[in-house]
Amino acid sequence: MTDVFTLLRPPREIRTGRRIAPVWLLGGLGVALFFTLVIGFTLYMTVGQLVLGHWREQQVLQHGLPAQAQIIGLADTGSIYNNDHVVAVTLEVMPPGQPPYQAVVDQPISVLNVTYFAPGNFVPVKYDPAHPDHVAFTFGPGHSGALPPSSP
């Protein structure tokens, strides 16, 4: 028969001071799970952000409302996508019949097209009225419109 004091006594490994590892680290399954989580998190932080940004841009281009925007400023983000520098383009979006507002769009810009993104230029965009900060350019490669003239 087991008495109460035997049940309350710590296990032998703790009483003798021997260190033991958690059970899930003892097998290969725990190591595999750890590396799967690390790789998954890394992929999410790199590729996931690109995929989400591209998906959001496609949604705005398909369902957004057209507007004109004036380029206010440019700032290099430090990222490169397909050998093009990704630039944070600050825009003043002017929706028809609504007050203008500012939005920032991260856009890869080719060296060949940099003149179209000069501050002061007007560009065609689409925006999401539910999320006005979601703005997409409607010109250039991959879009139906040609590059806009450099001035209004």
Shape: elongated
Order of strands across the main sheet: 3-2-1-4-5
Structural class: alpha+beta
The mean pLDDT is 78
Radius of gyration: 28 Å
Residue stretches low in confidence (pLDDT < 50, at least 5 long) are none
* Count of extended strands: 5
Distance between the termini: 94 Å
Strand content: 25-35%
Helix content: 25-40%
How is the main sheet built?
Answer: 5 strands, antiparallel
Query: Helix and strand succession?
Result: HHHHEEEEE
> How many helical elements?
4
Quick structural summary:
By secondary structure, the chain is α+β, with helices and mostly antiparallel strands.
Key terms:
alpha+beta, elongated, 152 residues, 4 helices, single chain, 5-stranded antiparallel sheet, 33% helix
Any chance you could write out the topology, listing elements then pairs?
Layout: H1 4-8, H2 12-16, H3 23-26, H4 28-63, E1 65-81, E2 84-94, E3 101-109, E4 122-128, E5 131-137
Antiparallel strand pairs: 1-2, 1-4, 2-3, 4-5
Question: How does this model look, in words?
Answer:
The mean pLDDT is 78. By secondary structure, the chain is α+β, with helices and mostly antiparallel strands. It has helices at 4-8, 12-16, 23-26, 28-63; strands spanning 65-81, 84-94, 101-109, 122-128, 131-137. It has a five-stranded antiparallel β-sheet, covered by helices on one side. It has a domain at 64-137. The protein contains four helices and five strands, in the order H-H-H-H-E-E-E-E-E. Helices cover 33% and strands 34% of the residues.
